[in-house]
Amino acid sequence: MDMIESILLVDDENLFHLVFEDACSLLDITLNLMTIDNADAAENHFANLVKENKPKPDCIFVDLNIIGSSFDGIELCRRINFVHGDGVVIGIISSSDDEQEQAKAVKAGAQFWIIKSDEIEPRLEEFVKDFDGYKERTAPFKVYR
Amino acid sequence: MIVLNDEIKKELVKLASEKNIFLEGNITKLILDQNDTQFSSYIQQCISRDKENRRKRLDITKTIQQQNKELIEWKAHNQQLNKDLQFALEASEKAKQLAENDLDMLQKRTQYELVGSIVKVALYVICGVGTITSILFAITLFTDIENKTVESSWSNMFSILLTNSFSIVGTIMGVKYASDKDRKRRHDDICGKCGKDL
Fold first, then answer.
1. Which of A11, A60, B58, B66 has the fewest CB neighbours in a 10 Å radius?
2. Which of B54, B59, B69 should one mutate to test binding to chain A, selecting the residue with the greatest count of A CBs within 10 A?
């Protein structure tokens, strides 16, 4: 199983950045992880990458409610998918399991939904197995519970 | 991948054996050992130490995360409790105010009833005494009985009754004023200077 080249995590909870970083390292998911705690900053970052023609992250994990931002994670998904990006694997990572929100996320172009909890590692392992399908746009939307 | 020269490899191995300082982080996964058994074992040691440290940090971070979550829940719970307490306090304050008003009304009503009774009795006495002396005076007038004493008694009686009437009214007003003042002082003692009119 290959590592994911680069991952961007957008989440307002800094402690989760550490959890995610350690989980990624322990599970050999990626060696290149960038974390941003604000949706506006993430959008600007992504817009700059596109503008300056720099490599975009292979996969983006977005929190649903990003406190301190002017829009939520689903709107960030929509903007990255339909305004700035093309072909980036993007999905939501949240403690919520709300089906209505999940339906909205699908409309915004999210390809997966990972439920945040104490045991995040098994879900990330499962996600990595499905990653190629997401990259090739052949895998359907999936919720990792 | 990164290829290190022999000198650096030796230095790194020496640093680990002498000072127990190892490379750590994701960079350890990018260094090629090039079939160097000693360096290969060093890199494996670095990777396993790094994993061990990360596992520890991950466990600690998760614990802190859980504690933070519980603290946030507790904070919300406490805020709700404080709100409820505030509502209950306000409700009890209102109930106290209502009870005080009721008590006040009751006291006033009792007081007015008492005052009314006193005034009635006083009026009956005044009217009775006035009527009796007037009848006596009329009898002396119509029966030609010597009436000087009754005449002076009648005028004295009326002046006394008049003075006493004013005295009774004055006493009633004085008692009312004193009781109002006493009530205000008691209210101030309990509430402080709350500025509410009684």
1. B66
2. B54
- The C-alpha of A117 sits at a distance from chain B's nearest C-alpha, in angstroms, of 9
pTM to 2 decimal places:
0.68
List the beta bridge partners of residue A143. Answer: A113
Which of A6, A22, A31 should be substituted to probe chain B, the one whose Cβ sees the most B Cβ atoms within 10 Å?
Answer: A22
B194 touches chain A (CB under 8 A): no
Domain A7-144, CATH class in plain words: alpha beta
Among A116-130, B3-17, B82-96, B184-198, the minimum mean pLDDT is found in B184-198
CA distance A44 to A82: 15
Q: Which domain holds residue B77?
A: 2-191
Total domains in chain B come to 1
**Which residues of chain A lie closer than 8 angstroms to B68, CB-CB?**
15
What digits encode the pLDDT tens for the residues B138-161?
887 788 776 677 777 777 877 887
- The ipTM is 0.79
Provide φ and ψ at B149, rounded to 5°.
-65, -45
Query: In this predicted model, what pLDDT tens digit does every residue of A66-93 receive, in sequence order?
Result: 999 999 999 999 999 888 877 789 999 9
